[in-house]
Write a structure and sequence with these properties.
Layout: E1 2-5, E2 17-28, E3 38-60, E4 66-85, E5 93-107, E6 111-112, E7 115-116, H1 117-122, E8 126-140, E9 144-157, E10 163-168, E11 174-179, E12 187-188, E13 196-202, E14 209-215, E15 218-225, E16 230-233, E17 243-248, E18 253-260, E19 263-270, E20 276-278, E21 287-294, E22 299-306, E23 309-316, E24 322-329, E25 331-336, E26 342-350, E27 353-360, E28 365-369, E29 377-383, E30 389-395, E31 400-406, E32 411-414, E33 424-429, E34 435-443, E35 445-452, E36 458-460, E37 468-473
Antiparallel strand pairs: 1-8, 2-9, 3-4, 4-5, 6-7, 8-9, 10-11, 10-37, 11-12, 13-14, 14-15, 15-16, 17-18, 18-19, 19-20, 21-22, 22-23, 23-24, 25-26, 26-27, 27-28, 29-30, 30-31, 31-32, 33-34, 34-35, 35-36
């Protein structure tokens, strides 16, 4: 009997999607081969024939086996060469070649980095790998072989450019960069010398990046193709004196807040045809800004400033019906959960006091989040992709921290617990909601770090000297 252990070593660290299998076979020698005396060696190689995804049940069995609702099915061709010794004196060394097919499945998430795994397979971003760990080959008599092959199968996600950010190196200059989720493969996508780039935002399918480009006293809305570095300006400075902010509606349409005369009105624009449409028509001196799109209900939610007070409004995308969300006044910023059930707003109570109010849109109940003592400034708020967590920046003149409010548990947690002097400029969720990436000055200058929500472990992505960094994580890859 021939027994080989630890034939192929694999790096178990960081392996997420895998399964183990034992392939057993009883093989008969070809008729033209002589009888076996004893086996000398056995070598196995493999070839991936195909990989596909199938839908399956969701849940966990009594024996703790988990099913996510999606499996990767891999078809493999194994090639085995068995060398053995026969009792024929003149020609006693022989090689028997054995070819066979095998199918295995690996439980994978329905989405990885916000992307359907079926699309990842199509574009070859999920790579199946087989690690042959153990081979037992034994002859049964002189004409048959008993074969056991222990294999570890892994489905490996091939990373791509997922994080985009602007590095502000001076008060007048900034550029867009992209990198992998671990900070590697960093590339520069724009090469402005005097312009200032702000608010980078990936499109919903992750093919383009929209941003505001400031030059002198004007700014315009631009689109960047990160694969080609081609930049297209989509707003006309002759029509819009200033663009305040914007959001993506779908892959071809953007809503932006543009200044016409003394007002900031909302407009929609098609980034291919550059046709635009005015959505709001306000009285003199009114500002409509910070639009966000609730795709589930086709609603545009935005802030309106009138008589020095902010209020939250919503508009139907198609019929233009517009009404105020009466219960949320003096809002500075807001976000809504993807399921559309909650809106969370940063409310300004006084010059040096802010709070977070969560409105349940189903029952119209308000919940005031209890802000820790010593926090007098709340800025930027964002809901997780899972819809049950709300993150915001809370701080004072000494430091900033990222806080996460759990809607299910009605609890608030300080994720970063920074030391005195640490300030945070921006943050963004990963598409799976298991990490938050943020920019802070923990190394004197601003750099990008991340934190795992499972154990609050921090990790650093960049080591640069930036005066400010704005972040956007790619919502999906294709």
């Amino acid at each position: 009997m021939l027994h080989k252990i630890g034939i192929c070593r694999c790096k178990s660290e960081g392996m997420k999607y895998f399964t183990q299998d034992c392939i057993s076979q009883k093989i008969r020698l070809d008729d033209n081969l002589p009888d076996i005396d004893y086996i000398v060696s056995s070598m196995v190689d493999y070839e991936i024939i195909s990989v596909d995804t199938i839908k399956t049940i969701k849940g966990k069995s009594n024996d703790e086996k988990y099913s996510s609702g999606k499996k990767a099915v891999v078809k493999i061709k194994f090639k085995q060469k068995i060398m053995y010794i026969s009792k024929i004196q003149d020609e006693n060394v022989h090689i028997f070649e054995n070819y066979f097919y095998h199918s295995v499945f690996v439980v994978i998430p329905e989405r990885i980095e916000g992307t359907d795994t079926k699309a990842l397979v199509k574009f070859k971003k999920l790579k199946p790998i087989a690690y042959i760990e153990d081979i037992i080959t034994k002859n049964i008599g002189v004409r048959a072989i008993l074969n056991y092959i222990h294999v570890l199968f892994e489905i490996k996600y091939i990373p791509t450019y997922e994080l985009c950010y602007t590095i502000h190196s001076s008060f007048k200059n900034s550029n867009i960069f992209t990198c992998f989720s671990d900070g590697s493969n960093n590339i520069q996508n724009t090469f402005y010398e005097k312009e200032k780039v702000m608010m980078p935002k990936w499109s919903q399918v992750g093919k383009e990046i929209a941003f505001l480009c400031y030059k002198k006293k004007e700014n315009q809305l631009c689109i960047l193709n990160p694969q080609t570095s081609f930049i297209k300006t989509i707003t006309d400075k002759r029509k819009f004196a200033l663009i305040k902010d914007f959001c993506w509606i779908d892959n071809e349409n953007i809503i932006f807040s543009g200044k016409i005369k003394e007002n900031f009105e909302l407009f929609s624009i098609n980034i291919r045809t550059l046709n635009y449409k005015q959505l709001t028509f306000s009285s003199k001196g009114v500002e409509n800004f910070k639009p966000k799109y609730l795709s589930k209900y086709n609603k545009i939610v935005f802030l309106r400033k009138e008589n020095r007070k902010n209020s939250l409004w919503q508009m139907d995308r198609y019929d233009g019906d517009c009404k105020e969300i009466n219960s949320l006044f003096n809002a500075k910023d807001f976000c809504f959960t993807i399921d559309g059930n909650h809106i969370a707003s940063i409310i300004k109570f006084s010059t040096c006091s802010c709070g977070v109010v969560i409105l349940n849109l189903k029952c119209h109940e308000e919940n005031m989040v209890k802000i820790p003592d010593g926090i007098n400034l709340v800025k930027k708020i964002s809901c997780s992709p899972s819809s049950n967590l709300i993150a915001f920046l809370g701080g004072n003149c000494n430091k900033d921290d990222i806080y996460v409010y759990n809607l299910d548990k009605n609890s608030l947690e300080n994720l970063t617990n920074n030391n005195k002097g640490i300030k945070i400029k921006d943050f963004t969720w990963s598409p799976e909601g298991d990490k938050i990436y943020y920019s802070s000055n923990g190394l004197q200058y601003y750099n990008i770090s991340g934190i795992l929500l499972s154990n609050l472990e921090k990790f650093q992505l960049t080591n640069i000297e930036a005066e400010n960094i704005e972040l956007s994580y790619r919502p999906c890859i294709f």
